[in-house]
Amino acid sequence: MTWASWTTVGIHVLPGVVQAEGFGPMQGDLTIHTTWSEHEAHLAVQYSGASDWYTLVGSPVPCHSEEDSRTYHQAVVDGVREGERAQDVLKKLSRTA
What is the pTM (predicted TM-score) of this model? Predict the structure, then answer.
């Protein structure tokens, strides 16, 4: 089995941009982590420095390569930094897979 992962720490997120399964809306200083395996990218979020991880609403998304999963990770990070809802970014990525 092939897998890869990426983590970006210290993303300042405005209210309403990130929704986590089983947690709800998250804002402030967040960390986003992407794990790619078996043709899916799984995205998780946590408050930076915390121990609990939560699945982003809309994750996992179909993803056919390690290179694509890195691109997906960066698209989510860039999107939430700019105020775009993470689940909207994930929907776009699902359509392009």
Answer: 0.93
What distance in Å separates the CA atoms of residue 97 and residue 79, rounded to the nearest whole number?
A: 18
Round to whole Å and give the CA distance between 47 and 66. 26
Task: For the chain, report the end-to-end CA distance as a whole number of angstroms.
Answer: 20
CA atoms within 13 A on the CB side of 19: 11
Burial group, residue 3, by CB count within 10 angstroms (0-12, 13-18, 19+): exposed
* Closest by CA position to 33, among listed 48, 21, 19: 48
Q: What confidence tens digit (pLDDT) does each residue in 1-53 have?
A: 689 999 999 999 999 999 999 999 999 999 999 999 999 999 999 999 999 99
∠ CA 90-41-1, nearest 5°, is 170
d(CA 78, CA 38): 25
Structure tokens at 70: 């890195």
Type of residue found at 36:
W
